[in-house]
Automatic annotation (TrEMBL):
The keyword ATP-binding does not apply. One of its GO terms (biological process) is glycolytic process. This is 2-oxoglutarate dehydrogenase E1 component. It is an enzyme of class 1 (oxidoreductase). Residues 48-104 are annotated as: Disordered. The lineage of its organism: Bacteria, Pseudomonadati, Pseudomonadota, Alphaproteobacteria, Rhodothalassiales. Residues 627-819 form the Transketolase-like pyrimidine-binding domain. Residues 90-104 have a biased composition (Low complexity). One of its GO terms (molecular function) is thiamine pyrophosphate binding. GO terms for cellular component: cytosol; oxoglutarate dehydrogenase complex.
Amino acid sequence: MALDHDPQEALEGVSSTFVENLYQRYGDDPDAVGEDWRAVFSHLEDGAARAAAQGPSWARHDDWPPSPDDDWTAGLDPTRMTPEPKPRATETPAKAAAAAAGPSPAEVRAATLDSIRALMMIRVYRVRGHLIADLDPLRLEEPLHNPELDPESYGFGPQDRNRPIFIDNVLGLETATMDEIVAILRRTYCASVGVEFMHINEPEEKAWIQQKIEGREKEIQFTVEGKRAILKKLIEAAHFETFLAKKYIGTKRFGLDGAEAIIPALEGIIKTGGQHGLKEIVLGMPHRGRLNVLANVMLKPFQQIFHEFQGGTHHPEDVEGSGDVKYHLGTSADREFDGNVVHMSLTANPSHLEAVDPVVLGKARAKLTQRGDHSQEQVLSLLLHGDAAFSGQGLVAECFSFSGLRGYRTGGTVHFVVNNQIGFTTSPIYARSSPYPSDMAKIVQAPIFHVNGDDPEAVVYATKLATEFRQKFKRDVVVDMFCYRRFGHNEADEPSFTQPLMYAAIRNHPHVIDIYAKRLVDEGVVTRDEVDGWVRDFTNLLEDAFDASKDFRPNRADWLEGRWRGLKRPRLEERPAARRAETGVDADTLRRIGDTITTLPETFHPHKTLKRILGAKEKMFHSGTGFDWATAEALAFGSLLDEGYWVRLSGQDSGRGTFSQRHAVYVDQKTEARHIPLRHVNKKAHFEVLDSPLSEFGVMGFEYGFSLAEPNALVLWEAQFGDFANGAQVIIDQFISSAEVKWLRMSGIVLLLPHGYEGQGPEHSSARLERFLQLCAEDNMQVANCTTPANYFHILRRQLHRDFRKPLVLMTPKSLLRHKKCVSSLAEMGPGTQFHRVLYDDADMQRHSTLKLTQDDRMRRLVLCSGKVYFDLLEKRDEADLTDVYLARVEQLYPYPHEAVLELLERFANLDSVVWCQEEPQNMGAWRFIEPLLEETMTQAGSKAGRPRYAGRNAAAATATGLASTHKRQQDELVAQALDLTRS
């Protein structure tokens, strides 16, 4: 146990009884304890001897006998560092002589025991002091008595209050009386701020917190100007809510009433962060208090907020979009304090609590990467939470798991919990099993500052400390502000149905602005007239803004500014040619990239299978044929990197690939050193491939956030199996599919979802294609199911080579990764080539098929499909020699390729049937989406085939069977049905 002779470190995590017994053994025989403990006890004895010599006598005496009702808190003001000193008893000549002679060995041992006990008590206050802190403004429950915090539990009685005790500068004092010790500890740990930090393993972090909060001069102090500034922000926060309540009676606003101290606290974060190198804050928060934050922190014009209350749009009327409710909207602004400018961006969010958290983290990560900020001090992710959501939503834990991970860490997040002490109608006792909502943060050893929301100075103080801690240690930190909701869940709600006692207390509880104003008036910091004048001036400002809001018109949308400049919003009615992109790449460039991905460092020891795979890739580049899925993907990534774009791929096991197909990361078999060949294509470009934590919701949200901040990055999230995207459905529904129309926010994120029916059961077959197609409208995203490596290559490159960004949902293959017919040539990725939304029959193209098809006017049946089933159809069609059945693949399902399908239908004018074939059950897959679109196209083409027909599995509750024999039978039947094999 290397303690470096530090008594506090030695006492960490051990009981008082254990140490006293150990000291007893040391007193009997110093060699009976270890060397480190001998050094500790010797050090304490030296200090205790000095302390003993300070007093008139070390012997326990009765200079000031206690009264029967004497206790340790009597006469102590917890806001002061020390109690008023009591006069010492008069020294007698005998006592003076004894003091001059120095303490005896027995007195030194008694003094040392007192030092040990005092140090143990100090440690317990650090661990448990928050349990009796004055945190709840409503005082609904008195803190439970904790005997561990009583000096009597450590052998100290009232007679010991004024004796000097050696505490080794632990509280900034070498010696202190028990009165002084208790006063400092109660002021530090049991007043308006309660700190939890002893669960942290890093001694430096704990020491920093102790140094910041413990000692004679560490009480909460603000200058006169600082106090006046806090009061002004409280006035703005409180009277903004009052004004809205009067002007918009009965309208939901999810006001901040009862938690107004958050407004000066947020400004404290901006100011403190700016002083410590911060340049940008990415903020995420729920709906409660959002309008107040928009107005008083983000400085969104009051007249614009009032305009939106009156039903006006938040963006120019010539910009299309559905819009959203006021308390979901985001904005950005620059704030300057002390000459430091900090850019603030508030991320738009849905009502799904905590769903915005990973989006904020992803945006912050992208901005750090843009700045090249490896120290991670210039960009801060700041998240506001409600207490019930913070403890109740599993996504919070997923986000905490990112805090220390390569590729995901953002240098620490400041979490501010608005602790309403209730969740809608659910009391904490029914909502969580932990004492505090913030206990979740202990999984990453984040320090937690609990604070009373009715003490605005304490709230600002806590947030400043939290910000300093984050900037120094680059770790997550939590501020848990105890407050209350003055009204219900929203202003129209009646909370007394379920919490009558709480709301009886709230009705009789003064507003924080009144509490703090009175305090400053009493201190002489302000006058009552000044306060009334500030309120009057701010109310007049709001009235003027209210009048101006009637004629307010947003003059521009900011969604294509900054790094998005030059991009545009496309129109769905544009001809396909207007939406194409030049995605072909020169063959020499592709071969150069191929050399990079197939060349190993000289000292590298590859796996024997990897060596064989690389040899096969070399043959592809030599022959120009046989390119498989993984190689085409690597060429897409490499060519984008070569052009200076970024590529970021994350997902569970994405480095190797779930199906051992990708091998984007080579691992040395002797050292486990990692070699990532694509990073050597263009060392100035940014390439990341990450094996993510076992999370879907959090990681997809993170990658979506990254894509919001960086339009020139190909950002991909890959599911281990496609149906695992279920776990991130909120991100898909509320952000990916709808953010553009709700909030005017584009994203080019790509979802890679392995999909295909191969007998692997209901959880490893379907990526739930139907769910994505159901979400498709208003040109909101793209859904595709590619069947050739070349088409995959082009659709990935197309994401960055068009002048707009849309999310791309890709059904990716499993068995096709190694299918002999699922290959492409180098020429198919060369100059002049592009993505094809519909692929023609391989027999038509004289590729992968020896069948000679009949003439177009004699073609009897057109089978349209998407994905892997095409190869089953091709094999069975050729085997049956059906020359009058044409197979076509719809590679892009949305936007629906109307023109390409129309061209096919017009080509085959005498069809007797048009069939949609799919592997999925009838109530799943693309059928219900494609049927009306296909029928409309057939009508336009003047087709004689009637309505489109369905070939596939029957409707089912589960996505697939788990029985291999049943799977094979169903697959054979749907292929036969599609090809009409019974007729042939």
